[in-house]
What we know:
Shape: rod-shaped
Radius of gyration: 27 Å
Helix content: 40-55%
Number of strands: 5
Strand order of the largest sheet: 1-2-3-5-4
Number of domains: 2
Amino acid sequence: MMHAMWIAQAAASASSPDTWLIAGFALVGLAVVLIAMELVLPSAGMLAIAAGTSVAAGVVCFFLHSVLWGFASLALVMGGAPFAIGYGLRLWSTTPLARRAVLSTELGEGTRAALPPAGTEGVARIALRPGGRVDVAGATFEAIAEDGFVDAGHRVRITGHEGGSLRVVSADRG
């Protein structure tokens, strides 16, 4: 916000007729940089708010230069923002930050296979606390342990299904 006010004040004090135009482009460029930073830095939306403020100040600067530039920039921002946001989210979803922040639905080949019947035994692929993954007949499935925690590598027996997950108990406990 302070940057936008500083640019606007500098533009007002300058004598060039294109100063507002330059300030408008500078503010919109600042907004692009802030949005790019928002995609890779966890800022709880503060960078996005600063970018929105910068875009708004840029549009005002374009209007102060001329009405034609003002309406052109307003139409460009209003029409292009949904596409830019969609593209940004698509790009963001491939970053390491997104992979850590969003749970993956990929479990491997086991997601395509039918759920095994009750009584079938498998092995806990990771520790079930109580949720986790188990390997049954070479396929991996989401599982929920009914009798507490099961350490990785221990045998489990399927007792039923809940949604797309298996309900299991430890087969090692008897």
